[in-house]
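INFO batch 0412 | record 1 of 1 | parsing
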Amino acid sequence: MTKVAVVILNFNGKKFLKEFLPIVMERSGNLAEIWVADNQSTDDSVSLMKEYFPEVNLIINDENGGFSKGYNDALAKIKAEYYVLLNSDIEVTENWIQPVINLMDADKTIGACQPKILAYHNKEHFEYAGASGGFIDKHGYPFCRGRVFQVLEKDESQYDDATEVFWATGACMFVRAEVYHKLGGLDEDFFAHMEEIDFCWRLKNNNYTVMVCPSSSVYHIGGGTLPKSSARKTYLNFRNNFALLYKNLPANRLFKVLALRLVLDGLAGIKFLSEGHLGDFVAVIKAHFYFYKNMGKLKKKRKNLIQKDVSLIYQGNIAMDHYLRGIRYFSQLSEQRFSK
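INFO prediction complete | emitting tokens
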């Protein structure tokens, strides 16, 4: 069994594979096996792999079941101590693997870890999907060290400490393989978006920790499959956020949080409509109807999971803090407001 398997899930990412896969191969050295799992691409990605990268392990998934199922199907076929879930649109740096593995080897309670994620097109700044480690507030809104909503901080080494976070980004997530399978992997009903937050919450509910290791860094393009302005992305984010709250919140907080989220999501829908984003407004409504329609299925999932009070949930409302109180940077948040 290999120590580390770097697994790139690809869907119509031929241009990214051509540009970034050689760098992954060069900078992973003898530390990892490299795998590409193709999700039924239609852009000749598989032909590219066979012709130009025959030495890279290739898995062709039977269907495009999205990010979650794509990885679950692929990782079921790979034997390793650690998996690295790596987006195809990422440029890795020198020595990007070893610092994270050293950190995880030293503490068996670490279930998942991410490097520092910087923006490929603006390399002095953090990138949206992960920055230097992710968090959520008490209502389920995600944010990061280095990114609050659309505000991306310049990386001035202010978040260079290896520390526990609430979630690690699926763009580049190191995960202990045994734990990944033990907890059932990513929730395939999520399809894409927030599945890594759901998985990391399950890790925490099962007494594992999630870390960021900024001594390792990578550069992420982002939005390679769905652009940030996509109504489809809005739908998945609202739908999956509601689902992860329902699955993971302890019973004493569940009703109160979901009731308030109904109001907050309604306000978000009104904001979309007032800005002329009709598609996003409709997406919020569709997301809620999906939740109601699938309540029975979610109840069954919840019954089979552990829910408890966990650490590092921000006990404020990050949306109000940002839009009404002018909070722009993670460092402006009080440490005392994060659950212990």
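INFO post-check: The radius of gyration is 19 Å.
INFO record closed
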